[in-house]
Design brief:
The chain contains nine helices and six strands, in the order H-H-H-H-H-E-H-E-E-H-E-H-E-E-H. With 228 residues, it is of the alpha+beta class. A six-stranded antiparallel β-sheet has the order 2-3-1-4-6-5. A hairpin with a 3-residue loop joins strand 2 and strand 3. Helix 1 crosses helix 4 and helix 3 packs across helix 4.
């Protein structure tokens, strides 16, 4: 059976700007609790005290701050770098054995040494391929017999290269995504390797996303230095 804390946590997670405002201590928990109360009561099917919601918000804030503090070792390394690749497309196909075989065969046509992009993300039912736009006609011809679900043009890839310490630092990725959500920047696709996170964004928003994340990392490093 859901609890007040569970419902409040879900409401905060559904709206990234709330979590960011709580972390920056620019929001009144009492007023936020009053605003949330009708939603909480509707989901629980009973009356709830304002104080119970306020306490839940304080616990969520403390947990978020604890997660954020664990990322300090990452920022102290000063090894987070950002880069952009433009002229990108994304194709999505219905997943099948033949689709996977066709995608594998296309790898040989991609010139990674010249900066061409070809990234594959598998879901349970779909497969998305992020590819350089210059390969569009060749790739479409190669995949003509497969069931295409969608294609998106005018995209760019924002790459975040980070030190291995990120793997053991909960909260890093959520800070990245919440910052972009806070600035109304939509992530169309995301995928990562051991020390790199790639975000597919609309081409007209990638420069703004780059600046937002650069400011975030600089701010965190400055805060850490001020504490030392």
């Amino acid at each position: 059976m859901p609890t007040v804390s569970h419902v409040v946590s879900n409401l905060v997670n559904q709206q990234p700007f709330l979590r960011e405002a709580m972390l920056q201590d620019i929001i009144s928990y009492a007023k936020l609790a009053y605003w949330m109360k009708p939603q909480v009561e509707r989901q629980l099917g009973k009356k709830v005290r304002d104080g119970a919601i306020t306490m839940a918000l304080h616990r969520i804030s403390e947990s978020a701050r604890a997660e954020e503090s664990k990322t300090k070792t990452v920022f102290s390394k000063g090894q987070i770098t950002l880069s952009i690749k433009s002229d990108i497309m994304e194709f999505t196909f219905l997943k099948s054995r033949s689709v996977m075989d066709s995608i594998s065969l296309f790898y040989d046509r991609v010139n990674f040494e010249q900066g061409e992009v070809f990234n594959v993300t598998q879901g349970n039912y779909e497969v998305s391929v992020v590819v350089s736009r210059k390969l569009k006609k060749e790739f479409e011809e190669h995949m003509r017999s497969e069931k295409a679900l969608s294609s998106l043009e005018s995209l760019a890839l924002l790459s975040i290269k980070f030190p291995p310490e990120v793997v053991g630092a909960p909260g890093f990725f959520s800070q990245v995504t919440s910052q972009l959500a806070w600035h109304d920047i939509n992530i169309l696709e995301s995928f990562s390797t051991y020390t790199e996170m790639m975000l597919a964004l609309e081409e007209n928003s990638v420069t703004r996303a780059y600046n937002v994340l650069q400011d975030l990392f600089r701010r965190k490093i400055s805060e850490l230095k001020a504490e030392q």
